[in-house]
Amino acid sequence: MIAGELRRFLRDHSAVRVSRSMRDTAYRVLQAKEKLTAETGREPDVDQIAKSLGIPRQEVVFSLEAITDPVSLYDPVYADGGENATVMDQIGDSRNTDEHWLEQIALEEAVRRLDEREKRILALRFYDGRTQMEVAKVVGISQAQVSRLEKNAIRRIKKELGN
Questions:
Q1: Domain with 45 in it
Q2: Which of 1, 56, 99, 139 is most buried, judging by how many CB atoms fall within 10 Å of its CB?
């Protein structure tokens, strides 16, 4: 009866809806963890729990994560005087900012306005890393023409980006 009440509590009092089978696995994992702790006098690792239950290690990890309460990105993790550091501050992505996205969109638009030959030359030069001589052979023009077309294409892109 007590085991049933514990299962019901885990099922009904979770902030995120998790499947019943996953919650039942989590319950079994917690029981095995307590049993192994009592037997060995120390907390077992994930591999020991998985071995004692005869289930894959990944299933143990997933089941324990499934019953963990979610954390808000704006929960403070550190406070120093009046200054709080939140989870969002810790995981913030400085590369994928709104400004970076806007620049990327503007660059894609500027490249889209180039003619097909200019796009191909820039792709061969900057994506494939080829020299102007190699590009000239592929496109069928002289190295001097590649240089001129490349320079003009870059100038047009910079002009559209406001640089």
A1: 2-66
A2: 139
List, in sequence order, every residue forming a beta bridge with 86; answer none if it has no partner.
76
Q: Model's pTM, two decimal places?
A: 0.44
Look-up of token digits 């019901």: 8
Spatial contact of 121 and 135, defined as CB atoms under 8 Å apart:
yes
Cα separation, 58 vs 25, in Å, equals 12
- Average pLDDT over the chain reads 86
Residue with tokens 């049993």: 35
Q: Which CATH number does the domain housing residue 128 bear?
A: 1.10.10.10
Tens digits of residue pLDDT in 74-90 = 788 777 777 778 877 77
Contact (Cβ atoms closer than 8 angstroms) between residue 123 and residue 135: no
Q: What are phi and psi of 104, to 5 degrees?
A: -65, -40
How many other C-beta atoms lie within 10 A of the C-beta of residue 147? 14
**CA pair distance 135, 124, nearest whole angstrom:** 6
| Nearest-5° Cα angle at 44, 43 to 48 | 175
Q: How many other CB atoms sit within 10 Å of the CB of residue 133? A: 10
Instruction: Kindly state the tokens that stand for 31.
Output: 């029981």
Q: Please report whether residue 126 resides in a domain.
A: yes
- Helix 143-161 to helix 132-139 angle, to the nearest 10 degrees? 100
